[in-house]
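Just scan my protein:

——
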Amino acid sequence: MFSNFFGRSDSQGESSIKWNELNDLEQIGTILEESKSQPVLIFKHSYSCGTSAMMLDRLQRKWNQEEVSELKPYFLDLLSNRNVSNQLAETFGVWHQSPQILIIHGGKCIYDISHMGISFEAIKAQLAGLETT
């Protein structure tokens, strides 16, 4: 069901986001380790929030996997996993918001944006910045 809800591609060749579900506190340690070899994106989503649904849809429509192939995306359902969201806020020193994008690289949150600031273009810009440093 999860993959059916999020999976999509369109006639312009854009790929869907290959979400990894984030639903366990232990996965935060995994993300910290993964971020040492590749950037990790976390999308914090609330199914009860219209803005969150709108930003998720906008991100899905603009997503092009080829342009961010090094990025590993995680999806966090806030309503079902509030404890994970709270631990992310503590671990990475960010305020909890919804919707929210975090990019984790080298064990640190290097990018944190929420609400209408969420965009595929901004994510790509952050990744481009990593390549030049």
Notes: The chain has a mean pLDDT of 89. The domain at 14-132 is CATH 3.40.30.10 (Glutaredoxin).
